[in-house]
Amino acid sequence: MIERLQISNLRNLTQVNLQSTACNVIIGENGSGKTSLLEAIFLLSRGKSFRHHQPKRYIQHHKKSAVVYAKINDSNALAIQKKTDATTLLRLNQTTVYNQSILTEQLPTLLIDPSTMDMLEQGSASRRQLLDWLVFHMKQGFHSQWVAYQRLLKQRNSLLKSTRRLTQVQLDELKAWDKGLGNHAALIHYYRERIFTEWQPCFFDSVAQLLPDYAAQLSLSYHAGYDTSVALDVQLNERLEQDLQLGYTRIGNHRADIHVHWHSNDSIDKDHEEKPSSFHTDTSTKLPVLKEQAANVLSRGEKKLLITALRLSQLPLLLRTEPHTDFSRDGMGSEATPVVLLDDITAELDGRAIEILLSNLAQLPCQVFMTSLTDEIVPLVKKLWSDSIVFHVKQGQITSDR
Predict the structure, then answer these.
(1) Class of domain 1-108+336-402
(2) Would you call 393 helix, strand, or coil by DSSP?
(3) Sheet-wide strand order for 339-342
(4) CATH number for region 120-324
(5) Which pTM was predicted?
(6) Segment 244-273, tens digit of pLDDT
(7) For 272-292, how does the pLDDT look when each residue is reduced to its tens digit (9 = 90+)?
């Protein structure tokens, strides 16, 4: 849990130094800086902003860098410095580290904000990242495999874009990359599939609370992005000519996806269901007949609740995992408390949904930072959290009720 947060030169937050607690409410008008505070926490955790990828867009004008520092649970101190040229400096307990994943492990953040409310209609990237965030925090070997896969994929795509006809040397090089991609892909799929299977019951529990009328008609499926019954390198070789013509790699882990399905009311038995293909994993024993994608059936408000359920359902699963131990030998390991960032939820969810969401969060051992335009949400927060602070933001200046 973040106990102390310092921010320098990030948007209109010139100098911020605040003590935080289990639940923190940030109230302010549009443009006051309340979302920038969440952005700073996200930046420290993920190494990037959820609003702009270019540091010069969030570093204060005429300043060379922005800095975010957090004291975690009286044990660890994390810091990130982003310069205008995108140079990054990371620190853990006064030690310079060179991999953002080290800070991410120490400070897992879950963001629910207006920009994520179109996840069902957007491309697969945001849904795939939702699964990978969970796999990263639960499976220690996943990140190294993912990084290696992305590196090889980038090399392969660069070669595919550069020519439509390969020399023998290039072909040999490509085959070596494809073999590596196949090896990494098998492990990445292994990790994803197992975490997805564990995630499903939590998703159904979350849907049952947020969308009780539709709980029996929604299901979750994972698509690997390629036929997992055949080695990826074999399939890449078979599709090489088409990939050369298109200039990119069409199948693989990078095309994986999560789908939420809507089912009709007419149930069918498992023995008569269509067996899932190797592109698809479905652990349900009995479901109504598949109708179509849930995004095509639910209303705008219901889709917001569904996306909130998707994100919220990850927390119970994350909280029962063992902490990573990469740095415990150096005395730097600790069990990480998830930090939930809720940006302007009163504008996205109705009163009933907000009460259900916050009631669920209050029962979990996580820390919450939420923003709001008004103080209407404060009575509910005070009711649910005995340990809470209300902050007021005005033109980048932050004060608290405590």
Answers:
(1) alpha beta
(2) strand
(3) 109-112, 339-342, 367-372, 23-27, 388-394, 397-400
(4) 1.20.1050.90
(5) 0.84
(6) 999 999 999 999 999 999 987 654 343 333
(7) 333 333 344 444 455 556 568
